[in-house]
Every structure is written in C-alpha cells, then in structure tokens.
Amino acid sequence: MEYKIDNNNVIVNKDDFLEESEIQYINFVLGYDLLNNMFKKSKYPECDTSYNFCDKLSREFVKSEEYQNTNHSTYEMLVEWLNNNKVRIKKDYKNYVLDTEVEQEELER
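User: That's the sequence. What structure does it adopt?
Assistant: Structure tokens below.
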C-alpha cells in the first residue's frame, strides 16, 4: 500500500486503505477460524508462517468471482471459495511450508 508522510501524518488513498483493511479481516478469519485446524495439525504451526499464508490466500480471494458476489457476506463467500479450492489450498500450504523450511535452512548456514 502506497503512502506518504506529511508533517508527521501518514496519507493513504482511502480505497487502498479500505482494501487493505478487508484483507486483514480475511486474514484474521482464515487464521483463527476457517483454517485454524489445518494450521494446528501442521508440522510448523508458527504464527508467521500461518499469517503469511493467510495473507497470500486473502489477496487471491479478493480477486475471485466469489468475492465479487455482493448478494452474500464476505464470510459466506470466503467459505464457499475455500470449499471450491480446498484441494489446491492444502497442496499450496504443503509447498509453502516446504519453501519456508528451505529458506530457514539457508539462513542457518
């Protein structure tokens, strides 16, 4: 999100701010509700790993057809989107965790 600082005030485009706020709400719902069991069962249930994965999914979701459906709540459409993409999301999470492991090993060298 782009911003500028003017006289110790942060100036942000209102639409960008609202979109980012929505993404953060979706991150919270994913992490603490809808995907919480998957994260708890994971080999690496760390907060950073889970948050970053939720953020990736949230940004995908806001570009989806389900998100554009204003006949239902964001929560309802997020549940539908997750169900429609369940297999891919589980696979993506496994790959994401593996990539995180590789990055961690490289940092430790």
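Helices lie at 14-34, 36-41, 47-61, 65-68, 74-84, 86-108.
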